[in-house]
Amino acid sequence: MMFAGIFHPPQRGCRAGDPGRRLVRTYKGLMIVIDDSDSARTNEDAVVVSPINRVRGELHMPGDKSISHRAAMLSALAAGESNLKNFSSARDCVATLECLQSLGVRIVKNDARVVIEGSGSSGLQQPTHSLDARNSGTTMRLLAGILAGQSFAATITGDDSLRARPMLRVAEPLRLMGAQVEVAANGCAPLRIKGRRPLQPIRYQLPIASAQIKSAVLLAGLAADGVTTVEEPAQTRDHTERILPQFGARLTRNGNAHSIQGGLPLHSCNIFVPGDISSAAYFIAAAVALPDSDLFIRDVGLNPTRTAFLSTLRAMGANISVADERLEDGEPAGTIHVRGRALKETVKLDVSDALVSSLIDELPLLAFVAANIGCEMKLSNAKELRVKESDRIAATVENLSRMGAHIEERLDGWRLYRGSRLHGAHLSSFSDHRIAMACAVAALVATGTSEIEGARDSVSVSLPEFWTLLESVSE
Ligand code: S3P
């Protein structure tokens, strides 16, 4: 089998002319190489990454994954045609669209434009087969909230990774609202949900900070006969609270408690989805770590519940500015400009509690950036990372150790010691898109070549364009 690799500049022992390697094209000085050597044959989804000098240019990110899921689901529940622009290209969001189609929703997708013909909050139809959320926790948990308020039964399942993630956390509040929710013996998917209409409104205190569970309860609350309140222990991303009123839902907030009025009809809506800041984070990290970089990312989401990565990098000395700030259908968006400069190796990052929630998807990447500049990072209260698409605590510690960092694994986080320097190594994506992209960034700024197992395709879960975009700004 073969794999595509990024080589810049061609490394000793890793040249395009080597036996078994064949140069297929060049792009801005990078060479994309198809490797059909024996080792590659056993490792068909690996990517080889060599260091680059800087990142320069301008990028537009595909639409935010979290917002795209929500926009599609609410469009399906609204009466009439909704138009979604800059819809995410993530495979996770394709899973959401396919599940909605299996529920009888008419959807036309033309690249990033999606037109959804909703038939009202009770217009979904019983699916003829199990719904497949693939790798997407957001699809499974948010859809569970919607299915709880339907008057039919449905099963929702997913791939091996998703079927190993905890689902009792979503089953419990939905059962309190009157839905029958069965989970497998280990508390995971498949979920069998027999909905009830109307549901019982509840006041629910989330035991863990989770935007997915908060959203599932709010979506179920749409079908309750009264006001449903969900209170979170720490602020998590608030896309559901921002988008629901765009479709006509009535929502109020009191501190970290969010209340929704059930029983109101939703109307269709046109939504522009800003670029995904969690995808942008990988390019921002590369620009921050390579001092000669200059990178613009346009039309990207700047929701304050998602920008802690920028403020943390600024605290490490990064030069990141924001311009053209505006509100796009309830969501802040704008341009991020990163100018590379030397970062402060003396910084000590101490991440715990509320900061964990606001950095949840960027924590592995942050550790790679911190290790690259040789600063200290202590992460605690982050057990949630163990139940993401992979065990991201173990995956981060394993990969950084292989690259030469001095890092120790803790039950609820890690301890990265000062003075690490990263060298190329054999890395593993653990079939997790965010680990694959974090490893790629680390490999671009480390010394020597790295090979990342399982990285070529896994990025498609959130950003199928990752390798192409990376190439386009690498010098
Ligand atoms: C998401 C919420 C987060 C995040 C996930 C997407 C969402 O999970 O990790 O990638 O779209 O609501 P939590 O439910 O742990 O907050």
Can you give a write-up of this model?
The protein is α+β, with helices and mostly antiparallel strands and 475 residues long. The chain has two domains: 54-61 and 276-425, Alpha-beta prism (UDP-n-acetylglucosamine1-carboxyvinyl-transferase, Chain); 65-272, Alpha-beta prism (UDP-n-acetylglucosamine1-carboxyvinyl-transferase, Chain), CATH 3.65.10.10. The chain is built from 14 helices and 26 strands. The strands form seven sheets. Strands 5-18-20-19 form a four-stranded mixed sheet. A hairpin with a 2-residue loop joins strand 2 (21-27) and strand 3. Helix 4 packs parallel to helix 6 and helix 11 (363-373) runs parallel beside helix 12. The longest helix is centred in the N-terminal third of the chain and has 13 residues, at 65-77. The radius of gyration is 22 Å and the shape is globular. It starts with a strand and ends with a helix. The model is unreliable at 1-5 and 7-42 (pLDDT under 50). Bound molecules: shikimate-3-phosphate. Shikimate-3-phosphate (S3P) binds at residues 66, 138, 210-212, 215, 236-237, 360-361, 384.
Summarize the structure.
The chain has 475 residues and is α+β, with helices and mostly antiparallel strands. It has helices at residues 38-41, 65-77, 91-102, 137-147, 168-176, 211-221, 239-243, 277-289, 308-315, 354-358, 363-373, 392-402, 433-445, 466-473; strands spanning 3-7, 21-27, 30-35, 47-49, 56-60, 79-85, 106-110, 113-119, 131-132, 153-157, 180-182, 191-194, 203-205, 227-231, 251-254, 257-261, 270-272, 294-301, 319-328, 331-339, 348-351, 376-379, 407-410, 413-416, 426-428, 450-453.
